[in-house]
Amino acid sequence: MIIAIDGPASSGKGTLARRLAAHYGVPHLDTGSLYRAVALSLLDAGAYLGDSGAAEAAARALTDDILASPRLRDERTGEAASIVSAMPGVRAALLEYQRAFARQTGGAVLDGRDVGTVICPHATVKLFVTASAGVRAARRAAELRARGEPADEAIIRADIEQRDRRDAERAVAPLKPAADAHLLDTSNLDIEAAFEAAKAVVESVIAAR
Ligand code: DC
After folding, report:
1. Is 85 exposed, middle or buried (CB count within 10 Å of its CB: 0-12, 13-18, 19+)?
2. Are 181 and 131 a contacting pair, CB within 8 Å?
3. What is the pLDDT of residues 137-188, one digit of tens each?
4. How many Å lie between the centroid of ligand 1 and the Cα of residue 178?
């Protein structure tokens, strides 16, 4: 069983993906962390973020160390990830790794922007998770404050909106729901309620098979 979960930044898709993977006992891949790792490699090397050759080379040379870096979650890394993820060479370099992860015996949960549309078009279940920009900014601000970092909600919201636009407007694998994705708006749902709603979708798809 492959569960594909897509959606914009801070929609709650990562938490849902982890919870569903634990519930069904299958491995989980946060595909955004791959793009973040490419971005962090470039930042650490002091490379120009628009250098698509360097970005593609970094995508082909990802190490466990960089994939485990706590700096993957930094705002600066996320911003840079949004830039490198628009590069076709970077996306092509990361495609097979993601597909191989999805093909594991027993299945997998993958979350990102293009899992249901490009990586796993034949996924068993596709969820597209959204929430309003205001709610997502508030969640992100709470997350940063919990880590002891300062957070200005208005700035975060502007960043989120800019990243949404960049992710949705890019030519390759833009952020959009697959035609057969189930939409889940988590604006008014807490984690538990969102998990129950997502699980209900998965169960209904399994039952109909
Ligand atoms: O979900 P995230 O914030 O960790 O993603 C970081 C960036 O990577 C985001 O700007 C979109 C991009 N991304 C992508 O293009 N395709 C994916 N499958 C996952 C993330």
Report:
1. buried
2. no
3. 999 999 889 989 899 999 999 999 988 888 888 888 888 899 999 999 999 9
4. 16
Residue stretches of the chain with pLDDT short of 70: none
Query: In angstroms, rounded to a whole number, what is the distance separating the alpha carbons of residues 115 and 127?
Result: 10
Name every residue whose Cβ is closer than 8 Å to that of residue 20 and which is 6 or more positions away in sequence. Answer: 3, 5, 28, 109, 195, 198, 199, 202
* Closest of 192, 26, 19 to residue 106, by C-alpha: 26
- With a 6 Å cutoff on the Cβ, whether 85 touches ligand 1 is yes
Contact (Cβ atoms closer than 8 angstroms) between residue 151 and residue 166:
no
- What global pTM score does this model have? 0.93
Helix (H, G, I), strand (E, B) or coil at 42: helix
Q: Is 94 in the pocket of ligand 1 (CB under 6 A)?
A: no
Phi–psi pair at 49, nearest 5 degrees: -65, -20
pLDDT, residue 53, reads 97
What stretches of the chain adopt beta strand conformation (E)? 2-6, 28-30, 108-112, 125-130, 182-185
Q: Is 83 in the pocket of ligand 1 (CB under 6 A)?
A: no
Distance between CA atoms of residues 54 and 40, nearest Å? 12
Q: What does the block give as tokens for 54?
A: 């360097």
Topology annotation, domain 2-208 = Rossmann fold (3.40.50)
Q: Where are the domains of the chain?
A: 2-208
